[in-house]
């Protein structure tokens, strides 16, 4: 298995933090639109980490 790039690590950390913010916003009863924005950002960051994997550069 290839070593993850710095960009992948950054995207994974961002996705984990956004997932935590998503859950926190749901727990405190925050606005639905904040949850929607954070959820979409988490998905985009996860997809970016997947696309930037070393095996995708062939």
Topology:
Elements (H helix, E strand, L loop, with lengths): L5 H23 L3 H20 L7
Helix pairs in contact: 1-2
**Can you tell me the residue ranges where pLDDT is under 50 for at least 5 consecutive residues?**
none
Q: What structural class do the secondary elements suggest?
A: mainly alpha
Rg, nearest Å: 14 Å
Distance between the termini: 15 Å
Global shape: elongated
- Count of runs of 4 or more consecutive helical residues: 2
Q: Helices and strands, in N-to-C order?
A: HH
Word description of this protein:
With 58 residues, the protein is mainly alpha-helical. Helix content is 74%, strand content 0%. Helix 1 (6-28) packs antiparallel against helix 2 (32-51). 10% of the residues are buried. The mean pLDDT is 91. Keywords: Membrane, Transmembrane, Transmembrane helix.
Keywords summarizing the entry:
74% helix; transmembrane helix; 2 helices; mainly alpha
Summarize the structure.
The chain is mostly helical and 58 residues long. Helix content is 74%, strand content 0%.
